[in-house]
Design goal:
By secondary structure, the protein is an alpha/beta fold. It has a 6-stranded mixed sheet. 50% of the residues lie in helices and 7% in strands. A hairpin with a 2-residue loop joins strand 2 and strand 3. The N terminus is likely disordered. It contains 17 helices and 6 strands.
């Protein structure tokens, strides 16, 4: 079935036309951890810095084939006595600032510095000069000083504490703060002032929260000082913070198609398939999965989404569980017996067999409660399934197998309660549903997986199942 939604322009397309990629400049000496940081934040496979020591080309645009929503410029650090790299970076930034289009400008700068050893020097003279002149050089472009390899710093302090027979956890936490302040934060503020943005990061899994903090700090300041479109581009490009994905989905939905759903002028004259397809595109664009075969944009996936959209049974007794825990429990329950069956057996039965596009999908949009109910349900259902996919696919590409697992997990863990809540809401609302947006947002938040829970939930799943092995719908 070939459908044309060109007349219903997606909101995400409008935003990405203005700013198709987040443009990031990363500055730092070889070995400081730039490549691993970029790989962790944007979940890419390729080594970012292919140049040999001292041969970074700041003008070269690096775009990873598995995540085309960001573009990286790499600058080597400013070594003592080497004014050439400083001048090259300054000239590059100046040229980019003068470019008229937002998509060509630098949206943020990460200045990566290794946490020094005790009594070590944090800032080279060239870095000091750059920081002192940063407002003149960068204008409103946010710069964040990133202290890398925080795990090495912590491990050293913990080892020293154990050797000195002082393993007290509270005292150790105070020591971490004081030592970091002495080695990094105070020297930085003495040169750059108290308003300089800074954070610590480690790319080790147990410190993933530090990368999320960097992404959040970047997004917040890009939105404040650059442009909302650039901030949304960062939310789309990053693949480490599920909370930002949910937030961006809601923000883009609120701009157009989630408002006044029951009485929308946007949808007049279009079929329900057209209306849901444009909403579908907005949501999957935000989540920005590595989907080389476009399974998430396929008609088959949309048809599976429409299956049982009106269905709601007796509420599950597990309603009190957190959504994330319910999802993980469901996944473990139905995958465990199948693990021993071998990698080539279909993990989930062919759920698409016999699925026929529901007849009402061909109907023209009408301002009725059943239409309101269906659109609300589709939005929440799809957002929940995107969260489950985020949980299941931290790296690598999307397969039909993992999509089917996500659909199955949602059916068991939350779908029924969502459908009942929406049907109850619509039954008592006036036709037009001006408060539908608030209910959509409420239900998404109730059925959200928290960013700080993701790593623990992935560990709980922990089944030796290759989710990237593909299979038929």
């Amino acid at each position: 079935m070939i459908l044309d939604t060109r007349q219903l322009q997606s909101t995400s397309s409008d935003i990405l036309q203005i700013c198709p990629r987040f443009r990031l400049l990363v500055i730092g000496k070889t070995g400081v951890g730039k490549s691993s940081l970029i790989q962790q934040a944007f979940k890419i496979n390729e080594h970012v810095s292919e140049h040999r020591r001292g041969e970074a080309d700041i003008d070269k645009e690096f775009v990873a084939p598995e995540n085309k929503r960001f573009v990286l410029h790499d600058s080597q650090g400013f070594e003592a006595g080497d004014s050439r790299c400083f001048a090259i970076a300054k000239d590059f930034i100046d040229r980019r600032r003068k470019m008229p289009k937002l998509q060509d400008k630098i949206h943020a700068v990460w200045l990566c510095l290794s946490i020094p050893h005790a009594d070590g020097r944090l800032l080279e003279s060239g870095v000091e000069e750059f920081l002192k002149l940063r407002k003149e050089i960068l204008g409103n472009i946010p710069i964040i000083v990133v202290f890398t390899k925080y795990d090495v710093f912590v491990d050293k302090l913990e080892l020293d504490a154990m050797e000195s027979d002082e393993p007290d956890e509270a005292a150790l936490e105070v020591l971490k703060i004081n030592t970091l302040n002495k080695l990094c934060i105070q020297p930085l503020k003495e040169v750059a002032g108290s308003d300089v943005l800074h954070t610590t990061v480690s790319t080790n899994q147990e410190y993933e929260s530090t990368v999320r903090q960097l992404i959040d700090l970047t997004t917040t300041n890009v939105e404040k000082f650059v442009a909302s479109e650039a901030a949304l581009a960062m939310m789309i490009a990053q693949r480490v913070d599920i909370g930002l994905k949910v937030r961006a989905s809601i923000a883009i939905g609120k701009k157009r198609y989630w408002r006044g759903i029951g009485s929308s002028m946007n949808f007049i004259g279009f079929t329900m398939w057209d209306c849901l397809s444009v909403i579908h595109k907005d949501i999957i664009d935000v989540w920005n999965f590595n989907d080389p075969h476009f399974y998430l944009a396929s008609d088959k996936f949309k048809e599976l989404m429409l299956k049982d959209l009106d269905k709601a049974d007796v509420p599950h007794t597990v309603e009190a569980f957190q959504f994330g825990l319910s999802v993980v429990s469901t996944i473990i329950t139905f995958l465990t017996p199948l693990v021993a069956s071998g990698p080539f057996l279909s993990i989930v039965a062919p759920i698409a067999a016999g699925v026929v596009l529901v007849k009402w999908a061909y109907d023209t949009y009408q301002r009725t409660n059943i239409v309101l109910q269906r659109i609300m349900t589709y939005i929440v259902d799809l957002t929940c399934i995107m969260q489950i996919l985020f949980l299941l696919v931290p790296t690598g590409s999307i397969s039909r197998r993992v999509i089917k697992i996500a659909i199955k997990a949602y059916e068991e863990a939350g779908k029924n309660n969502v459908h009942l809540a929406i049907q109850s809401h619509v039954s008592v609302t006036r036709s037009g549903g001006d408060d539908a947006l608030d209910e959509i947002v409420r239900l998404i938040k109730v059925h959200s997986i928290k960013a700080e829970e993701v790593q623990n939930l992935r560990t709980k799943i922990g089944l030796p199942v290759d989710l990237q092995v593909d299979e038929e719908w």
